[in-house]
Amino acid sequence: MALEELYREVILDHYRNPRHKGRLPGAHFHAEGQNPSCGDEFSLDLDVEAGEIVQVATQGQGCSISQASGSMMADISKGKTVDQVEEITSKFKLMMDIEEGENPVDPARPGAVLGDLEALQGVRKFPVRIKCADLPWATLADALEEAKAAQ
Ligand code: ZN
Known about the structure:
Layout: H1 3-16, E1 29-35, E2 40-49, E3 52-61, H2 64-77, H3 82-97, H4 110-114, H5 127-149
Antiparallel strand pairs: 1-2, 2-3
Helix pairs in contact: 1-2, 2-5, 3-5
Bound molecules: zinc ion.
Zinc ion is lined by residues 35, 38, 40, 62-63, 65-66, 132.
């Protein structure tokens, strides 16, 4: 299977079966975001205990890129510390920013750092869709700011 085809399958799988979908009753932190250029919406509930993201729940609607990115974000964030998630966020942004052909992740183990998120790197070719992929991460950053302020 060609890599681009594999990436498309990963994106569609997250879009059709979003991980951690729903609301957290009594969640500590909540953030919402919108991407008006595409009509994407995303909202996020986080429970953070002692600097660790112990529960994540997301809701959203919009294109497959935005919703798949949100599902991947929720999946990779749960069980990680706020610091770890911020590091993943910056690696993800780096991946979406770089020139074609460069690789910000360890080339020896490309799946080790970003996992399924690497499937989104094809979106780089479509600058208008990068906003779609970024939406859940901007929403996450808002919720993490809230969490850090509350510490
Ligand atoms: Zn979109």
